[in-house]
Write a structure and sequence with these properties.
The protein is mostly helical and 109 residues long. It has a domain of 76 residues. Helices cover 56% and strands 0% of the residues. It is elongated.
């Protein structure tokens, strides 16, 4: 997962227009292309979410009273880092356009 985080830190998190001709160059089907990108985005989203939750669990306090809740600066920094990452769809689309994303069909058998 740290491989993805280091790759995307230099990416622009803003959406930008894409050329559909480039997107369908590999398989000539826009729906198939979008299905591949959306499945990869789902994988990225789940991985990032589980990683964030595992890091934030380290700071979890099992106190029962509201008065004892404190703000932890490390926890805030981790949350801000993950908020600044590009959307998983943007990451998946970049992977697809750079041909870093491999996919294959399931066997029908």
């Amino acid at each position: 997962m740290s491989d993805i985080k280091s790759k995307v830190q230099e990416m622009d998190p803003n959406i930008s227009p894409r050329n559909l001709g480039e997107m369908v160059k590999r398989n000539q089907n826009i729906y198939e292309t979008l299905a591949v990108i959306s499945k990869r985005a789902n994988q990225l989203s789940q991985d990032l979410k589980s990683e964030l939750h595992s890091k934030l669990e380290e700071f979890a306090v099992t106190s029962e009273t509201i008065e004892e809740i404190q703000e932890n600066k490390e926890q805030v920094e981790i949350s801000k880092f993950y908020e600044k990452l590009p959307n998983p769809v943007i990451i998946a689309m970049k992977e697809y356009l750079n041909e870093d994303l491999d996919y294959r069909y399931r066997d029908e058998d």
